Automatic annotation (TrEMBL):
The lineage of its organism: Bacteria, Pseudomonadati, Bacteroidota, Flavobacteriia, Flavobacteriales. Keywords: Calcium, Hydrolase. The keyword Hydrolase applies. This is Alpha-1,2-mannosidase. Residues 737-756 have a biased composition (Basic and acidic residues). It comes from the Bacteria. GO terms for molecular function: carbohydrate binding; peptide-N4-(N-acetyl-beta-glucosaminyl)asparagine amidase activity. It comes from Chryseobacterium carnipullorum. One of its GO terms (cellular component) is cytosol. Monomer. Its cofactor is Ca(2+).
Length: 756
């Protein structure tokens, strides 16, 4: 009953603060969709689903198998696709598509495609509708976690039909006319190798079929209502005496047809379309309404909630509830149907930085489930995934699952098998995996030399060294929190200082080092890739999350450290792309933003702005965070400055708009910036609130003159997670000129390992 009342008051406050506009209606799901392989403005698609739901839905403008499923500049829609795609670079798995038609039967995606206009398109988190001009049909869909409801508004015609496309790479379709039903499965996926992989689906129509036919590959199949093929599909038709709607309810399962039917019955059942849509909207408003903001421009409100929406999808639930109400999942790690929770669709290289810390603060209960899923992945596959899509994917570097596991426990999450996760992070830290991106590639070099050498044919070696060192810190922190003996954990504390081994005192930057201990030469700090990952030395030099004070000392002290930070913005946006052989989109995005070597469009440098707090110049953090929020984020199709990446780039914005950021996951601290809004309230799951007040906030008043925390003057450049979880009132006095004294003393600086 308490949760019902709290939900009621949250929704009541939402409408009061938003002048009648609910959080879900501030969201623009098209933010970031005006993208292409050569230039990302987000590389997103309109994801229509529920928070962390097993399935999402999106209109499909791209070709089957193309990761750019929906792009804003496209003219035609080819279908409405159930998707599990984390990003276009990862592509999709378990997808199938539905598309209405009128007149001559057309099932090939180019032939069935229809012109559309954004002027006749309405995208919300909880529904999507569009007018398909070539067939004079408006299609609308609304989701649940594992199901969706379609509404096709047909004209009066005797030749209305719906195409079901189970896609290629192995699919099955069966029409059951008496039951007005279609069954099917797809086995298509993009990365990894899986056993027993099928996405089973059921589609239930509300009208009798006047026409039924199947097709495979590029031809119709006569008199056969069941097809197994590389590429299978079906068409069912209707004779409509009047302009009317045809409804289709669909659900899927990674377990069985029976489970798909159960998911449909349980999640939609006898509810009508509007009821499902209303319930979906209410769920979004409740979830988004955990954070209320007030006192910004309309565009800032829309950008905030659109960014918040993007933090609430991945990883997706890969588990289902069986007929006995037991939690079950198909395992991407061994192909079996097993008990317990499982999630898929996230890359920790991106999301350990801010997305998972954000969940630990605002939505901890879902991350408890995710931690259970991680424990199961280790039990079933022998390693933690670093990129799950849906299982082990051989992309990116690092062993950042350690950070994700450690931060959750240190931030107080409980109720899962943390001892299994402790064994998992130690195993990952000391072993190479079955693929390069699992465990630690180059682990023997790292553990013996203290770095991964440049000249042993291990790519992105210096970036690996820096990330492994931070991950060792996270393991050490977790071990301390678990009460593990020094004999077990001190090795990780020692290795956490390995970042020093690749710091070049001559240039003051991180640099590749050969096996013989000499730095690689020649050295170009503007060279992307090579020793680094999707960045250059100017980006990766700051990846010492655990010991910024130690990095500062290597650079010659606070003033030189601050000057080095300044240099990032002062340098021209030059680059060396010779490692890649062409200008990759991340390079282009840095170049055109005109912020020097600051490349916010990719993850490695996103925390760097907050490092002024460790140099006694927090006012520079305040200036640059506001500059980035104002310049690089908009609730528009070109609204990001690079890949959004599973909620990470959005989580940076949400945290920064609230006024603080988790520079060092696996500690208790958030580093201060400055809030964007005059008021914000975070409704914590424990019933407490964090109130953030900055009544003088404005475009000019972007600097923090002073801060009171719980009515007491507060000079520190950081906030404690534990204290925030007890409820807090943060009162910022804002000004149009910087206060260069506040936060300038060493006693006010955030945590660094070497000062412990």
């Amino acid at each position: 009953m308490k949760s019902l009342f709290s939900t009621f008051f949250i929704v009541l406050n939402i409408f009061a603060l938003g002048q009648g506009i609910s959080p879900a209606d501030y969201v623009n799901p098209l933010m970031g969709t005006q993208s292409k392989p050569s230039l990302s403005n987000g590389n997103t698609y309109p994801a229509i689903g529920l928070p962390w739901g097993m399935n999402l839905w999106t209109p499909q403008t791209g070709k089957m198998g193309d990761g750019w499923a929906y792009t804003y500049d496209a003219d035609k829609i080819k279908g409405f696709k159930q998707t599990h795609q984390p990003s276009p670079w990862m592509n999709d798995y378990g997808a199938f598509a539905i598309m209405p038609g009128v007149g001559k039967l057309k099932f090939k995606e180019e032939e069935r495609a229809s012109w559309f206009s954004h002027k006749a398109e309405n995208a919300k988190p909880y529904s999507y509708s569009v007018y398909l001009a070539d067939i004079n049909v408006t299609t609308e869909l609304t989701p649940t976690e594992r199901a969706a409801f379609f509404k096709f508004d047909f004209p009066k015609t005797d030749s209305a039909y719906v195409v079901i496309d189970a896609l290629n790479k192995g699919s099955y379709i069966k029409i059951l006319p008496k039951e007005r039903k279609i069954l099917g499965y797809t086995t298509k996926y993009s990365r990894g190798k899986y056993n027993n992989f099928k996405n089973y689906f059921v589609i239930q129509f509300d009208k009798d079929f006047d026409l039924t036919t199947t097709w495979k590959d590029s031809v119709f199949v006569k008199n056969q209502l069941e097809i197994t093929s590389d590429h299978a599909g079906a068409i069912v038709g209707f004779k409509l005496r009047n302009k009317e709607s045809v409804y289709a309810r669909t659900a899927s399962s990674f377990i069985s047809f029976e489970q798909a039917e159960l998911n449909l019955k349980r999640e939609i059942g006898g509810r009508n379309f509007e009821q499902v849509k209303t319930d979906a909207k209410n769920i979004w408003n409740k979830t988004l309404g955990r954070i209320e903001v007030k006192g910004g421009t309309d565009q800032q409100m829309r950008t905030f909630y659109s960014s918040l929406y993007r933090t609430l999808f991945f990883p997706q639930k890969l588990y289902e509830i069986d007929a006995d109400n037991k939690v079950k999942h198909w395992s991407p790690y061994n192909g079996k149907i097993l008990d317990g929770k499982m999630f898929a669709g996230t890359g920790f290289w991106d999301t350990f930085r801010a997305l998972y810390p954000f969940l630990n603060l605002v939505y901890p209960s879902i991350n408890v489930e995710m931690q259970e899923g991680l424990a199961n992945s280790f039990k079933e596959g022998g390693f933690l995934p670093e990129w799950s899509s849906p299982g082990y994917s051989d992309i990116m570097i690092g062993n950042n699952s350690a950070s994700v596991v450690a931060d959750a426990y240190i931030k107080g999450l409980r109720g899962y098998d943390v001892e299994t996760l402790w064994q998992a992070v130690k195993h990952g830290a000391n072993n190479e995996g079955p693929i390069d991106a699992v465990g630690r590639r180059g682990v023997e070099y790292y553990n013996t030399l203290g770095y991964v050498p440049y000249d042993v044919k291990i790519n992105e070696n210096t970036a690996r060294t820096l990330e492994y060192a931070y991950d060792d810190f996270a393991i050490y922190q977790l071990g301390k929190a678990l009460g593990k003996p020094a004999s077990e954990i001190d090795i990780y504390k020692k290795r956490a200082s390995n970042y020093k081994n690749v710091f070049d005192p001559e240039t003051g930057l991180m640099r590749g080092k050969n096996k013989d201990g000499k730095f690689q030469s020649p050295f170009n700090p503007f060279k992307w890739g090579d020793a680094f990952t999707e960045g250059n030395s100017w980006h990766y030099t700051w990846s010492v999350f655990q010991d910024i004070d130690g990095l500062s000392k290597l650079m010659g002290g606070k003033k030189k450290f601050e000057a080095k930070l300044d240099e990032v913005f002062a340098l021209p946006p030059v680059f060396d792309d010779s490692y890649y052989g062409s200008v990759i989109h991340e390079i282009r995005e840095m170049q055109i933003m005109n912020m020097g070597q600051y490349a916010h469009g990719n993850q490695p440098i996103q925390h760097m702005i907050y490092l002024y707090n460790y140099a006694g110049a927090p006012y520079k953090t305040q200036y640059w965070t506001r500059h980035v929020m104002d310049k690089l984020y908009y609730a528009t199709p070109d609204g990001y400055c690079g890949d959004e990446d599973n909620g990470q780039t959005s989580a940076w914005y949400v945290f920064s708009a609230l006024g603080f950021y988790p520079v060092t996951s696996a500690t208790d601290q958030y580093v201060l910036g400055a809030p964007l809004f005059k008021e914000a309230v975070i409704h914590l799951e424990n019933g407490k609130n964090i109130e953030i007040k900055a009544p003088a906030n404005s475009a000019d008043n972007l600097y923090v003159k002073s801060l009171n925390v719980n009515l007491r003057s507060y000079s520190k450049n950081w906030l404690s997670h534990k204290e925030l979880m007890n409820g807090a009132v943060l009162e910022f006095q804002m000004d149009n000129k910087p206060n260069k004294e506040r936060g300038s003393q060493e006693k006010d600086f955030p945590y660094s390992m070497s000062k412990e």
